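Tip: read the tokens left to right.
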């Protein structure tokens, strides 16, 4: 079996080689944790965004969309708590001059303890076979008990240090003997808080310039527009506002390709409910969002919930939907019950009322909010990495195939004339002219047809339509299915319906 690291490297190189993702400004050696979506990547990303939009906005009468500006009045970020509290604890290594997140260093140490425990569990499972009882083993095996207890103790000290005193976090790093992962040096500075927002300036002259921030989340654009949307749309609580858009964070540790970026895109929805009804709504959105992910067919076993024990100051419940990325289970989406914190804070800082008059209760209140927030780039990585597969075929040869959910595939069908003569290219072009109104389709006449099939497999194209000499006689073509490689002979007039059946959002979303 290929190692996780190799699988991940393969994902990154495939994304580049086949025109999905390039490092930003690569001619200047790139910019750390910033990426560009290339000709195929931009289509896949757009399709994921549309799949989300369709299910959240178009399919829900009481959810509407918004596209707020990236630049917002700076007081927004004071009210939201980002100016004072959107920090990561950073630590520098004095010898290597490398900068790390102090909490990540400690968490990585704990991950090693967890890996050691897992190794013992795997060994015991192999030894005892069907009779193996994991629950019993992890509570009785001395080594596993020790590893897991140590991990728990370290994480609880870390959590305390993060809230009470960052010097305790440094002491913890020193006590555990944690070294710079790249150089092995243990010569650390103190731990300092580092604000993750990018600053910028508005205005032409230095004296009059106003300090602004690039938004670190799209959510605040929704909160400050809450009343505008409610009034102009005559919305009744409960209702939601959804938006997709760029967010910026000056991440200290930006790694793992597009998993943690400095410029990324979020798809967020704030659902406004009556105070007291938020927990019901929170449970509903947890389940609904998981169903949305599952509808893409990437495998139920690849998702799990992680309920937060330690809550942010504004939340009374929070959970992540974690996905099994090539480097393990990590957060893909957050669902947060944000109480009335944000609207109340904007009321206080703006001096304006952000309240709803509930005609059924005959009273005004600040609604409570349940938020769903998923990273579009993380969705892209989840879909792309899971779909990329190496298959050994019956004749012993291998093929690389990107088994993207057909609804998300950048190109839905490629039309291939068997040879570049005898009128076959002309018929192929006619088919393209007809299909391109409904689907993104491609024309390809270069190389032998077998090689063209492999290229489309690697691009994730669900269908290849081949025009051959029989087409001249009876207006039929072959249609090849990417996943099974099965070919059917069909009439040209049937193509649209066959493709539509596989790629229509309706058919995919009905699986929710
Ligand atoms: N409004 C809530 C919010 O922003 P978050 O957990 O900080 O919550 C939500 O972010 C989602 O945004 C995450 O689950 C993740 O998918 C995505 N995300 C956050 N930071 C990211 C980054 N640096 N790069 C890529 N995606 C990121």
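Filled-in amino acids:
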């Amino acid at each position: 079996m290929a190692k996780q690291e190799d699988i991940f490297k393969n994902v990154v190189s495939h994304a580049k080689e086949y025109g999905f993702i390039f490092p930003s400004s690569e001619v200047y050696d790139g910019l750390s944790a910033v990426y560009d979506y290339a000709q195929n990547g931009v289509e896949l990303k757009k399709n994921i965004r549309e799949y989300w939009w369709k299910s959240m906005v178009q399919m829900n009468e009481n959810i509407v969309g918004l596209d707020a500006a990236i630049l917002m009045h700076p007081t927004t970020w004071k009210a939201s708590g980002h100016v004072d509290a959107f920090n990561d604890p950073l630590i520098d290594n004095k010898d290597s001059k490398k900068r790390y997140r102090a909490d990540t260093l400690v968490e990585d140490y704990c991950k090693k303890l967890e890996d050691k425990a897992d190794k013992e569990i795997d060994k015991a499972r192999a030894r005892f076979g069907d009779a193996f009882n994991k629950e019993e083993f992890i509570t009785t095996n001395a080594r596993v008990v020790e590893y897991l207890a140590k991990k728990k103790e370290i994480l609880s000290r870390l959590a305390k240090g993060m809230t009470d005193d960052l010097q305790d976090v440094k002491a913890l790093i020193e006590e555990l003997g944690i070294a710079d992962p790249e150089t092995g040096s243990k010569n650390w500075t103190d731990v300092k808080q580092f604000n993750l927002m990018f600053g910028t300036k508005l205005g032409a002259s230095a004296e009059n310039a106003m300090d602004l921030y690039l938004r670190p989340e799209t959510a605040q654009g929704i909160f400050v527009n809450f009343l505008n949307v409610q009034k102009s749309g005559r919305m009744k609580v409960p209702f939601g506002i959804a938006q997709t858009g760029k967010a910026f964070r000056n991440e200290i540790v930006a790694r793992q390709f597009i998993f943690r970026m400095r410029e990324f895109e979020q798809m967020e929805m704030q659902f406004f409910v009556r105070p007291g009804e938020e927990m019901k709504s929170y449970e509903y959105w947890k389940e609904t969002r998981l169903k949305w992910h599952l509808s893409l067919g990437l495998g139920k076993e690849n998702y799990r919930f992680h309920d937060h024990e330690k809550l942010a100051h504004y939340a009374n419940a929070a959970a992540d939907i974690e996905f099994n990325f090539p480097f393990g289970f990590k957060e893909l989406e957050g669902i947060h019950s944000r109480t009335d914190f944000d609207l109340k804070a904007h009321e206080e800082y703006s001096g304006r009322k952000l309240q709803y008059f509930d005609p059924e209760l005959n009273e005004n209140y600040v609604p409570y909010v349940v938020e769903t927030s998923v990273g579009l780039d993380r969705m892209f990585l989840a879909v792309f990495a899971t779909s990329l597969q190496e298959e050994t075929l019956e004749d012993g040869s291998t093929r690389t195939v990107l088994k993207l959910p057909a609804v998300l595939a950048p190109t839905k069908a490629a039309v291939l004339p068997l040879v570049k003569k005898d009128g076959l290219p002309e018929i192929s072009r006619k088919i393209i002219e007809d299909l391109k109104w409904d689907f993104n389709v491609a024309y390809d006449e270069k190389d032998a047809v077998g090689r063209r099939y492999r290229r489309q497999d690697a691009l994730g194209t669900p269908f290849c339509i081949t025009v051959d000499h029989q087409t001249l006689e009876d207006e039929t073509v072959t249609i090849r299915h990417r996943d099974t490689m099965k070919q059917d002979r069909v009439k040209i007039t049937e193509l649209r319906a066959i493709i539509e059946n596989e790629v229509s959002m309706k058919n995919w979303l009905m699986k929710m």
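The two ends are 33 Å apart (CA to CA). The mean pLDDT is 95.
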